[in-house]
Amino acid sequence: MQLPFLHLNLYFNPFGELDCEQRKQLAVVNLSEYKQSLYNKGLAIQFYADHGRGKTTHLLALHNIYPDAEYIKLYAGDKPEIFLRDILFIDSIENLSKRKRTDLYRNTASIAFTSHTDLSPEIRQAGYQLINIKISVADNMTLKYIFNRRIEYARRTDHSIPVVGMPLIYNLRQRYGDNVRAMEAHLYEIFQNLKGISNVKM
Questions:
Q1: For residue 196, how many other CB atoms are within 10 A of its CB?
Q2: Which of helix, strand or coil describes residue 122?
Q3: In the chain, N or C terminus with fewer CB closer than 10 Å?
Q4: What end-to-end distance do the CA atoms of the chain give, in Å?
Q5: Which residues are bridge partners to 46 per DSSP?
Q6: pLDDT of residue 182
Q7: How far apart are CA 17 and CA 49, in angstroms?
Q8: Model-level pTM?
């Protein structure tokens, strides 16, 4: 039986779901300027944007700089234990009620989090100095690099692999704007049906 994606010289579909460690490894972000920031008490770093823009990727990349800090992924209805922490990373903090968030702020010296809405007013009211980062991938060359990096990660041998070129990037941007997750979902379907190695087309 032929292995899946062998005909593309890949181990797997490059645009399938990645685990946290893979996302950290493949993140195309530069957050080195914040490598000491969270050691200063009373600092908050907020990554905010609509769905699919890369908030979690940025938070994971930052957490890679602070690997000993606790990282919590929140889902609707979650009730995490709140206790004193020096540094805390929270993905999707808006899944906590405002009252719970207030309790969390009181017990967390420095915090980095993602949110779909800008929580600047309540963060400042909680007494934090805020670094506010709105996420958007506006650069077509960066998108091309991100997608081809994903393909390279799935490479099987040194022989040729499929390539995402600028014409496809233009088409994806026209259809999905800056929603990277939607673009990746579209590319996943393309690779599921791709017959051979070539420049990838819609």
A1: 8
A2: helix
A3: N
A4: 29
A5: 113, 132
A6: 96
A7: 20
A8: 0.88
Tally: H helices and E strands in the chain:
7, 5
User: Residue 150 and residue 79: Cα distance in Å, rounded?
Assistant: 34
Q: Domain residue spans in the chain?
A: 6-18+138-193, 31-134
CB 86 within 8 A of CB 109: yes
Domain 31-134 sits in CATH at: 3.40.50.300
Rounded-to-integer distance, Cα 180 and Cα 184, Å: 6
Would you say the C-alpha torsion 147, 167, 47, 40 has a positive or negative sign? positive
- Please give the C-alpha separations between residue 131 and each of 11, 101, 198, in angstroms, as whole numbers: 39, 18, 43
- Take residue 118 and report the two structure tokens written for it: 């800008």
Distance, CA of 195 to CA of 179 (rounded, Å): 26
Kindly report which listed range (152-156, 182-186, 195-199) carries the lowest average pLDDT score.
Answer: 195-199
According to DSSP H, which parts of 39-139 are helical? 55-63, 98-106, 120-125
What span, in angstroms and rounded, lies between the C-alpha atoms of 76 and 59? 19
Tell me the two tokens of residue 74.
């929140």
Instruction: Give me the phi and psi of 99, to 5 degrees please.
Output: -65, -45
The CA distance from 183 to 14, in Å, is 13
Do 89 and 110 form a contact (C-beta atoms < 8 A)?
no
Give the residues across from 129 on adjacent strands.
Answer: 43
Residue 202, pLDDT above cutoff 90: no
DSSP bridge pairs for 88: 70, 111
